[in-house]
Design goal:
Layout lengths: L1 E8 L6 H18 L2 E8 L7 E10 L2 H10 L1 H4 L9 E5 L4
Antiparallel strand pairs: 1-3, 1-4, 2-3
């Protein structure tokens, strides 16, 4: 399996905070199953206290497989992330 970096920017009217508890539960399941390596919020350059998206390190066989997992996350399904702008890149990482 390879490691992929995912950058998922929020929509301007993101529902991030109302969905956060479910997102964190989904992330914990991914860690238990071994495909979620790490992740967290990204912050706005204009307002360093404001979350404006997410970064994730995920294991997968392909970028397509990883994108499929990302698109099933509640942040993607319920309107926190701007799914049109999500980036998935294979990276070199020892984890």
């Amino acid at each position: 399996m390879s490691i992929f970096l995912v950058i998922a920017p929020d929509l301007p009217d993101s529902r991030r905070l109302s969905l956060r508890e479910t997102h964190l539960l989904q992330s914990a399941v991914g860690r238990e199953l071994g495909w979620n390596v790490n992740g967290g919020p990204t912050f706005s350059a204009q307002d360093p206290q404001k979350m404006d998206g997410s970064w994730l390190l995920l294991r997968g066989l392909s970028a397509e497989e990883v994108m499929g997992r990302v698109l099933r996350d509640i942040y993607a399904v319920e309107g926190a992330w701007d799914v049109e702008k999500i980036e998935v890149k294979k990276v070199g990482a020892k984890v």
